[in-house]
Amino acid sequence: MGQRHTVSLLSSIEERINSKLNEKELEIQNINRKNKDLVERIKQVSMEVRCWQCRTKYNESVVNVLKSNLEQVMAEGARNGKEGYGDSEVDTATSYANQNHTCRVGGSADSFSLKKQITCRACKINEASVLLFPCRHLCLCKVCEGLIDVCPTCRIKKSSSVEVFLS
Ligand SMILES: [Zn+2]
Ligand SMILES: [Zn+2]
């Protein structure tokens, strides 16, 4: 009798341990699944970060190109200002800025006609100070730029714009 009792007690303990083990196994599976999810998330996030880094780099390169463009324009403007005449540039944006600069520095005979070109093409009152993209025309003032979506010079829809200061 005693022995049988012990056996049934043992088997019930074993059963309980088994069910506990099963529970734990389920938990472990759950945790593993969550881990997998987390790893996926981390991968995704790190990809996003890389994406942003790429974009940042791209933006930086755009800024650098713009900077060097502007520097070139400034240098040429200063030179042209001394000479009194501007070379005709292929790049429209450059030549615009060039003329703008020449006009300010140069005081040459063309001053007046040049000045006409740098006033805002929309209101014809303010000075054009916003460079449009992608066409890179410098032809709008800050006020009109906020109201107009299409470049008044070439009719290309602007994707973005940058205010420029020529000193
Ligand atoms: Zn304007
Ligand atoms: Zn344009």
TrEMBL record:
Signal peptide: none annotated. Residues 120-155 form the RING-type domain. Pfam families: zf-C3HC4_3 (PF13920). Keywords: Coiled coil, Metal-binding, Zinc, Zinc-finger. Residues 14-48 form a coiled coil. It comes from the Eukaryota. PROSITE patterns: ZF_RING_2. InterPro entries: Znf_RING, Znf_RING/FYVE/PHD. PANTHER family: BOI-RELATED E3 UBIQUITIN-PROTEIN LIGASE 1-LIKE ISOFORM X1, SBP (S-RIBONUCLEASE BINDING PROTEIN) FAMILY PROTEIN. This is RING-type domain-containing protein.
